Amino acid sequence: MPKVKVDGVELEVPAGATVLQACELAGKEIPRFCYHERLSIAGNCRMCLVEVKPGPPKPQASCALPAAEGQEIRTDSEMVKKAREGVMEFLLINHPLDCPICDQGGECDLQDQSVAYGRGGSRYHEHKRAVTEKYMGPLIKTTMTRCIHCTRCVRFSEEIAGVDEIGALYRGETMQISTYLEKAAKHELSANVIDLCPVGALTSKPYAFEARPWELKKTLSIDVSDAIGANIRLDSRGREVLRILPRVNDDVNEEWLADRGRFLVDGLTRRRLDRPWLRRDGKLVAATWAEAFAAVASINPGSSVAVVAGDLVDCETMFAAKELAGALGSTLLEGRQTGLAYTASNLAAVAFNSTLGGIEEADAILIVGSQIRDEAPLLNARLRKAVKRGAKVFVIGPVWDTTYPATFLGEDAGLLFDLPSDVTDAFGAAAKPAIIIGGGALAKGALEAGLGFAERFNLVRDGWNGFNVLHMAASRMGGLMLGYAQAGGLADLVAAKPKMVISLGADEVDWTKFADSMIVHIGHHGDKAAHAADVILPAAAFSEKDGTYVNTEGRVQFAERAVFAPGEAREDWTILRALADAFGVNVGFDSFEQLRAAMIAQVPALGVEGLADYGALPAAPATAACSGTIGYPIKDPYLNNAIGRASPTLQRCSSELLHGELQAEAAE
Amino acid sequence: MADRHPEPDTPQLRARWGNFAWTEANAAKAKEIIARYPAGRQRSAVMPLLDLAQRQVGAEENTQGWLPLPVMEYVAAQLDMPIIRVLEVATFYTMYNIAPVGRFHVQVCGTTPCMLRGSDDILAVCKQRGLKKGHTTADGLFTLTEVECMGNCASAPMVQINDDNYEDLTAERIEHILDELAAGRQPKTGTQEPGRHTVEPVGGPTSLTAMVSENHDYRGEW
Fold first, then answer.
1. Are the CB atoms for A228 and A378 separated by under 8 Å?
2. Which residues from chain B sit within 8 angstroms of residue A173, using beta carbons?
3. Tell me, what DSSP letter sits at residue A606?
4. B130 at the A interface (CB within 8 A)?
5. Pairing of strands A392-396, A407-410
6. Which of A177, A280, A399, B109 gets the most CB atoms within 10 Å of its CB?
7. What is the pLDDT of residues A103-144, one digit of tens each?
8. ipTM greater than 0.90, yes or no?
9. CA A451 to chain centre
10. Do B91 and A181 lie within an 8 Å CB cutoff?
11. A165 to chain B: which residues are within 8 Å by CB?
């Protein structure tokens, strides 16, 4: 713990800290461009110069200088001021003065820091360097003349994403950032370089020229595109959410966000259900709310009601539907739309117990039936970190392109009982062994076998729980906590032949199985369920309602409403409350607060932000059977939910990046 | 230097170089080079391997050699490294030619000492003979590049042609050298000054004169 003096104030800094970190601990702001907490240190922008004694009599780059005992650091001296002005002047020599037409304007590090630390004017009268634009795919817009060569994007793609595709070509003044042969950046975290870029060189292509940051209302929300529950910020103007940015949460998403969570935003305004629809003579016709409720009431299902929850709904909606079904006398609730039927009686057995941050410490990891990059891109970045720290990764399932060394054992789920000796050796010796069971394996009945594996290798030990199930739907854990699970899964609902099925945005269900039932769809997009529905009640998307989401770890998180639902669409719980009136039953709540209070009374964990406690793992059953070739459920990672399927940006990603169809750019 | 660009990735380029592979001798050499570095660090061999590849390409088409993109990809695959990292190296160092060059790559130093000693005359001769900066002559013999300091300031001006330096040049001497090369003969390399061997002072030493014949202890005279 070295003691240093920053601007005359003595303080103790952690061993291994840099001078820059020491200055931050002392509360001093150090300007920087290339330095980033989560990336390796490059030390090439020189903006973080400070004066350090003892040392050479010149300013030093604080980001790359270790803090040492007895250092006297000055961040306020004349030398530092002049050094910063000098660096800034050099950086601005080749930077265009096009802030008025630059999308970074208003949230630009270079802009802010030149105001704070730069000279008033430039002494440079020669020609500026110009660099041609580089094509980087449908998500990233480039204006490379603005690039200041901080190499954050290069380091991100190499270190975090694990896909070496961005590089710095040429040298000196002619240095250019580019992908190989200007191919599109293809990995699932590619758009994070937009946030990392301290200038306007890499900006968001779909968001180009949409808005200025100071016009936007910022709302805290939760990403619903997978079960990680990344913390996001919705930037909205008027009635439209214009963009989605990640928020920092070290426990969940650090500060990254998967591309599909970021760019589904333009799906929120397209293909929306904005008025009720009724099916008359086999055709959907527009209706009023009164007609719609009358039609639903005329079904008069009695207790023959089932509820299917979709992947994107919040806990409040599911609870309201549960109460409605309960008031009608039914407990037929199911959220696992594709027919999975794993035992959900003990929630600890279906949660990601290691936690997303904890999995980084694992030293042996067995992935069973999960294409992590498609199912949870942010978890893949964590696994990459674990491997960098020395973890061994084994995968049972079809081969996919990992971003770290991994051993593929085979495609048959039965391998869980018949592991090769290198796997058993690795797990026998591991201090923090972990298993990750994905949806593809759950379909083959691998949950019990996984519990057996956990018992055999003692995955639960002091301060460590290595048993993990990775879900793919934002609503899954919340649904399981609220009892949206039948013993036989969706098949139980089909077998019960309910008169009426309420779909809470359940777009992945094979609705032909419910051909004899009246299907009431409460959803926000005209997706698959809307085509099968008899009554469509337009509802709110995740950005248009307050809601509670539980991620795959069992982490309860709250999202807030950013904008109002379009047209006649209403928040889901109000629709369900009105349905209760239509059926003449009492659900026991009249306001959102009452609803939430009733939900928390029933499931107290949903009222506390943070990890829910699911207790201990159940004992492994004596007999467990799992076999069959594992298949991965996500066929198209960009179009895995109704909002994504409605998004032109993600459709383009899918066709261009997955299916290789190049779309011609309009002539500019 | 600002005009350096890799040869575009065309079907013709792929057809010509797509199935590039080491010759037997070079394969052995590449193996030996990779073995110089610790296991798992084979990426360190990228620079010597690119040089080797450039020379093999040169031998194949009787030029100084260059690096077509498929050849860089071949090296990347052999070293199990991302192609963008290889391209970074190849574009950074100007001694890797990333576009085709002629039989003789004439690199004229134009930095201050050489300029003061007459590099403009050298460039004038080159221009007169039809050499254009950044271009190859029609007969495929010469490619002219102006480069920065090559570290031969004591015998300026100089040019580097392929692997050899030619120093102490004048207009006549560079004419002669280019004539000889065009005729297929190998002119004398190094300094062109008669009587000079390397970069020793012209006309005898002017300092440390007592050291010429024997070791002399100057310390008492300071």
1. yes
2. 2
3. G
4. no
5. parallel
6. B109
7. 999 999 999 999 999 998 889 999 999 999 999 999 999 999
8. no
9. 27
10. no
11. 82, 84
Provide the pLDDT confidence category of residue A667 given band limits of 50, 70 and 90: very low
DSSP secondary structure of A519-552 = EEEEESB-SHHHHH-SEEEEB--GGGS-EEEE-T
How far is it, in rounded angstroms, from Cα A405 to Cα A399?
12
State pLDDT tens for residues B145-192: 999 999 999 998 999 999 999 999 999 999 999 999 999 999 999 999
The residue of chain A with its CA nearest to that of B84 is: A180
B104-109 and B159-161: which strand pairing? Answer: antiparallel
- The pTM assigned to this predicted structure is 0.91
* CA dihedral sign, ordered B26, B32, B35, B36: negative
Query: Which amino acid appears at position A408 of this protein?
Result: F
Spell out which residues of chain B touch residue A180, defining contact as CB-CB under 8 Å: 82-84, 87
Q: What is the 3-state secondary structure (H, E, C) of A465-489?
A: ECEEECCCCCCHHHHHHCCCCCCCC
What the block records as the tokens of A651 is 């459709």
Can you list the positions of beta strands (E) in A250-324?
277-280, 283-286, 305-309
Q: What is the CA radius of gyration of chain B?
A: 21
CB contact under 8 A, A165 and B85: no
C-alpha R_g of chain A: 27
Contacts of B8 by beta carbon, 8 Å cutoff, 6+ apart: none
A332's tokens? 């037929």
d(CA A220, CA B162): 63
B196 touches chain A (CB under 8 A): no
Q: Which two tokens stand for residue A540?
A: 């709110």
